[in-house]
Design brief:
heterodimer, A: mainly alpha, 4 helices, B: mainly alpha, Rna Polymerase Sigma Factor, Chain: A, Arc Repressor Mutant, subunit A
Chain lengths: 82, 188
Amino acid sequence: MLRCKDVAKALADKNIRDMSFFERFSLVVHVMLCPFCGKFHKDVVKHQEMARCFHDHEEPNDEKMDDDAKKKLREALSKECK
Amino acid sequence: MSHKDPEKWVDLYGDYLYRFALSRLSDPSAAEDVVQETLLAAIKGVERYDETKVDFKFWLRGICRNKIVDTIRKRMREIPVEEIFEYDESPNRSMQLMGIPNNKPDTFSFAPDKQYQKKEFWKVFQSCASKLKSPMREIYLLKEIESLSTEEICKEFNITPNNLWVIVHRARGQMKKCLNKNWGDRVC
């Protein structure tokens, strides 16, 4: 059985989705049974999940690149292509 | 075959890459630089692109992601070391010794997993991340969003795992406070 410190370290170190089945299983069992860790570690997992979804989310804004910047970039690319 | 014509890349992918870079860097000028570096790197590496494996847009996004991480690394090097060690203290003694939190975390005032399909939510998330103070913002981006390993970040910036975990812990706390304030009130 993991100790509280091991759980805290594991969650600080890795995203729960990157853990092996055994690591995840041990962690979930501990968090379910431990009166100290439950809420805190569930909270960490919520944050990790949110960050992961943000990572996969493609277009969180509607901004467009400035036209002048695009023009310069086109010039740089065509120079590079020659 | 859009990948074969680099001169069209700006029109086809410029805004897409710019939005992606801006969402991570929150700095229009840095985002433009990243797009430029991405497309120039793509010209050099386009021979290695295999269209049977991945869509060209996502291939460019992969390069862009690496350029974003490089930009954050450069920013980190400009941050005075003492500002990183400001975060040296663990959140509390029981956490430091036993890993047991003695303060219960504030709760989210909304269900985060119910918001993921809402575009507005991610705008608020991005805005909250951009409000984190340096170097907390950069470390949060590298560790939580870009999933760089603890070892990699600690080696790069010469900090201990403990420093890193404390910074990420505090960043999460500030993110939650900001999200509760700016999003929680809307959905409750």
